[in-house]
């Protein structure tokens, strides 16, 4: 099933919509916890700006080391409920140095809220494909990263192509593609503030922040086999899962029971703690 296709119930048009929906669900859960309400009570969808102004997301900037001075290393997610098995994320400071710096700080101050809470798998007939969504934050001690991800060479801004599934190419296709890709010698990536590009095209195993945010706190792990080209380069990718043991655990998590029908919220959030190697 194509990521761009409309689901039968008309609720989800793309992975982007799915992640934005997830952000709304999680945002409301965070608010409800803060207000002493049920964590599964779903209210009106909140925007990134309104969530930030509520004080639930830190916005104070902090100095970030250049990518070449950051140690790549691995971010280790350890799950007590799975007998302390681990998901190892190879960090990529060349894609998002601000995110890597954020994790170094988060490990030092301890992750007060680290968990997986939701599955999204309606875009494939394979139950093992989809995305796993979670949160990593310690808002009292570590402000969120606000530095946008780096746009890799050859990437371009996200665009909606209504003919994405049409194999026929019209005579204006080349001109349209040129308009969509704003990078050339006179308009380098560094000067293109409205391009939305924050990282590479999503591949299986990549880990990125939800909803196009530069620094979370909500993230997702992509488990779709095919490259998610339809989403363009809008997601700030900060790492990759590359080892078999981690993928085995991710597949088991994809089989976890969910609640609330279409929202696919896990019955029990899977808490983990983090470390760096």
Descriptive terms for the model:
ten-stranded antiparallel beta sheet, 5 helices, disordered N terminus, Cyclophilin, 277 residues, alpha+beta, Cyclophilin-type_PPIase_dom
Write a short abstract of this structure.
The chain is of the alpha+beta class and 277 residues long. It has 5 helices and 10 strands.
Please tally the helical runs, counting DSSP H or I stretches of 4 or more residues: 5
The count of strands amounts to: 10
Q: Determine and state the CATH class.
A: Mainly Beta
In which range does the helix fraction lie? 10-25%
**Cα separation of the termini:** 38 Å
**Lateral arrangement of strands in the main beta sheet:** 8-9-3-4-6-5-7-2-1-10
Instruction: Tell me the CATH topology.
Output: Cyclophilin
Unreliable segments (pLDDT under 50, ≥5 consecutive)?
Answer: 1-13, 30-62, 157-194
Number of domains: 1
Order of helices and strands: HHEEHEEHEEEHEEE
Classification by helices and strands:
alpha+beta
**Backbone CA Rg:** 19 Å
The CATH homologous superfamily: Cyclophilin-like
Which oligomerization state do the chains in this entry correspond to? single chain
The average pLDDT is 71
Shape: globular
* Main β-sheet description: 10 strands, antiparallel
